[in-house]
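haha ok so turns out i had the wrong file open the whole time. this is the CORRECT one, sorry everyone. sequence first:
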Amino acid sequence: MRRRQLVIRLAAFAAAAHLSFSVHAAEPADIVLGQSAPLSGSFSEMGEAYRDGAQIYFEKINKEGGVNGRRIRLITLDDGYDAKRAQANTTELIEHHQALALFGHMFTNTVFASLPMATAAGVPYVAPYAGNESLYARPANHILFMTRASYSNELDALLRHVQAMGLSRVALARYDSAGGVALQKDLEEKLKEIKLAPVGVATMRLNSLQPADAVLKIVNMHPQAIILGVSGDDAVAFVQQFNQAANKVPVQFLARSLIGGHQLAVKLGKESRGIVISQVAPSPFNGETHISREYQAALKSANAAGRKLIASYIGFDGYIAAKVIVEGLRRAGPNPGRPALTKALETMHHWDAGDFIVNYDESDHTGSKFVTVTVIGAGGHFIE
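then structure:
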């Protein structure tokens, strides 16, 4: 009798285990997106903010049942803003993790190092945090989809601000890099168009936190305005050392969005007041757009679950980028491959993300040309 009961129990256990395995096996696989970003070094705060902004949107979608019943899993690997590490990360994401798409790779050197790899493999490369003009060329790279206005668009907005303030002596602090050279060339051409010329240019090494030589050179130029072509902690160090060296002689700092405005406001404190920064997204703070209200609600939900996230422009950029790729995934169907996702994104003609328009077609993957100008005010608040 006991032996019979034991056999029955074992059979029931085996059946339950088989059922559990069958249910588990029937669950659709996650949609894997791969990102290489600086989670260490001078740009780590920006890397984390962009990743987290995207992640809270993916978490929101997963709670709602995923995309066509499939969860999204973002795998982010640290590259410390090093091109070789970004290449190694890209190989790992494509070959080992089998990422459906690369999403949110960050900054010029690492984007330029990894984009050819994605192109060769036919992997969609969506929402890189960069804005070099070559990324917006037509006809578009068939796998590259931008979500931000170009650096050149941002520079136009900053120079309009310079003109409105009546400033004429403009200097440039840039990186000793290909991206820095491109910025200098673009600035010189745009200043020539408005009948101005830069009073001079100074360079510093990326990720060095050593702006002393550049500071001394620019102080001696006696500029009225300085375009900051450096970012993150490098920009913080430059502004601090310039203010000390210039002995409080007033100068207007201006920068593009990739400088990391929140980082400046926090680390510079009162010294950040008055810095002009172009932005490629509407305000994430005032709730005037539908997508900013969504972002604020997602932040609140994430923080209620134990996170400690704060609203920022770069985090909002990540949130918008995540919403764009999710819409592409929805249009690609329940089991999208890489070509299907590429074609699906190209159907997003004048798509409204929530008072923020994204536009793709077969020949143009620009996405957005939205630019606004903000000023860091008292208490680190951004004023449009």
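DSSP finds twelve helices and 14 strands in the chain.
again sry for the mixup
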